[in-house]
Design goal:
462 residues; mainly alpha; 18 helices; globular; disordered N terminus
Length: 462
């Protein structure tokens, strides 16, 4: 999840760092940037939600991922234009503020991004506590394990975790290795004549016409969870060499590589395992390993999957806590939210706050609902970003940058908002997202009252 720049209390973008502060080192070349984008996208989504997508659409499991791939490319094109135009360590909230100059809207976008990180981490916690961990033990209730998982990550977060890009490359290679195993098993099955190709065209949504449409859209909205993450890379703009040139290639290649992997994994999964078995498993790719006819240790694959979802959850919780801290420093959340632990210099109030919200999410939701919540929140944000691209066309800059064809952000906005709409066959997601947003609006109101009282006190004292 991205950690966008946030506006100050007045609604203007946050002031630039003092001149005495050295600029960030531009250490990221094109190859490392591509690997960073791929590493950001890969993770919990494909490892955890493949089965739930199969439960919504049936054997044509690849179709929602193919549609999600197209939607991701459309929105990626908008991010590429914006990060080339404004090569700062920013994101959706900054673009929203520049385009619309409405502080409350900017806050809502920033808070939705933060909450998408929490719901993503919560989905990862549920995935961790499911069938992948079940390969090693099933003695502890899954919900308790998920809560302990969040608490453990909070402790690591409080201690201080600094992820370098080279470490991210190593993590990416580990995550890719698990998916490479699935693809190798699929290739073996095809050449051996195993599997059931007829399943690949079966769409089972429980009806025709409108029911078929909503079923496919619902599966696509959930499957889109696997594609989120490319928007994180815009936060590396100030540490990238020649970002206006390197970002378009990195984001498009990153989304294309992961999209291709996802579609192939979906094809292999449906080829080897029926949709009912996939949908009943919280570790669907483990079912593929077991059914593949290849002597690959299930425990080893489960360990790779556990590593992948843990890494995703930790990064998301870190991003959410830092975004909370940043909004407090910019005076759009209560100042208390920005308190830092003296010894470790970590934002402890923000960490505690986001961890409590995550515990609430894992206690009341399953992988499908939490993954779908992540998709819904980010699809709303992506809709705003696609519109912001068009609004900001009037804002000229003095350097060359990528300009996406106008049709792409238009289609990106339409597809994002359609997938976020009730047409995508969801219900409890709106309740969960609504509660999260109400919490954010409450904090916004409290902060406004505190700031107004402080300003009144200062005027009286003066």
């Amino acid at each position: 999840m991205s950690t966008p720049g946030t506006p100050g209390a007045s609604g203007t973008p946050a002031p630039a760092a003092p001149e005495a502060s050295p600029p960030l080192k531009r250490a990221l070349g094109p190859k490392l940037l591509i690997l960073f984008v791929i590493g950001d996208i890969l993770g919990t989504g494909i490892y955890a939600t493949t089965g739930d997508v199969a439960g919504k659409v049936g054997g044509a499991l690849w179709l929602p991922f193919a549609i999600g791939f197209v939607v991701a490319l459309l929105t990626a094109a908008s991010y590429v234009e914006l990060v080339g135009k404004y090569p700062k360590a920013a994101g959706a909230a900054l673009y929203t503020q520049k385009a619309f100059k409405i502080p409350f809207l900017t806050f809502i976008v920033a808070f939705m991004v933060m909450c998408s990180g929490l719901s993503s981490a919560s989905a990862a916690a549920r995935a961790f506590s499911g069938d992948y961990l079940g390969e090693f033990t099933d003695a502890v209730p899954p919900t308790l394990i998920a809560i302990l998982f969040i608490l453990a990550l909070a402790a690591i977060n409080l201690r201080g975790v600094s992820e370098s890009v080279k470490a991210n490359v190593v993590l990416t290679l580990v995550e890719v290795s698990g998916l490479a195993v699935i693809l190798a098993i699929g290739a073996y099955a095809v050449f051996s004549g195993d599997g059931e190709p007829s399943r690949l065209t079966q769409i089972e949504t429980g009806g025709t016409g409108y029911a078929l449409l909503t079923g496919v859209l619902g599966a696509t909205a959930l499957g889109f969870f696997a594609f989120v993450g490319f928007e994180d890379s815009v936060n590396m703009a100030e540490e990238t060499k020649d970002p206006a040139r390197n970002f378009p290639r990195a984001i498009f290649i990153g989304v294309a590589v992961t999209g291709t992997i996802y579609i192939l994994v979906a094809l292999v999964s449906s080829l080897l395992v029926d949709s009912r078995t996939l949908s009943e498993s919280s570790g669907p790719l483990l079912e593929v390993v077991k059914a593949g006819g290849v002597d690959f240790p299930p425990k080893l694959f489960a360990l790779i999957a556990l590593f992948a979802v843990t890494n995703s959850a930790l990064i998301n919780l870190m991003m959410a806590s830092r975004l909370c801290y940043g909004m407090a420093n910019e005076r759009i959340l209560p100042p208390t939210m920005g308190k830092v632990l003296a010894g470790r210099r970590t934002p402890w109030v923000g960490i505690v706050f986001v961890s409590l919200l995550a515990i609430g999410l894992v206690s009341t939701g399953e992988i499908e609902g939490l993954g779908d919540t992540t998709s819904f929140l980010l699809l709303c944000v992506f809709g705003v970003v696609n519109i912001a691209v068009l609004v900001l066309r009037k804002d000229r800059v003095d350097h060359r940058h990528f300009r996406t064809p106008t049709a792409l952000p238009v289609l990106g906005a339409i597809t994002s908002l359609v997938l976020a709409s009730p047409l995508a066959d969801r219900a409890d997601v709106y309740v969960r997202a609504g509660i999260l947003l109400l919490i954010g609006i409450g904090l916004w109101a409290v902060n406004k009252a505190v700031m107004a009282a402080r300003e009144k006190s200062d005027r009286a004292a003066g």
